[in-house]
Hints:
Mean pLDDT: 75
Strand order of the largest sheet: 1-2
Structural class: alpha+beta
Radius of gyration: 14 Å
Order of helices and strands: HEE
Largest sheet: 2 strands, antiparallel
Strand content: 5-15%
Number of strands: 2
Number of helices: 1
Shape: extended
Helix content: 10-25%
Amino acid sequence: MNEPELADLPRLLLRFNRRDFGRLRRLIDALNAAGAVPPVTGAGAGPPRPVARRGGNGLSHA
Length: 62
């Protein structure tokens, strides 16, 4: 990774298809509107956990 300051930022993983681009754009806009969140500390801190798959829409949840 050539931007090490981004290594610890949270990430979303999802399956993308061009048909649902509008929905992805709305998700990005909503996340940007929410602004920054304070870092997680305590019991919830640590490396990402594997996620369970939901339905056939390609979305994941923890």
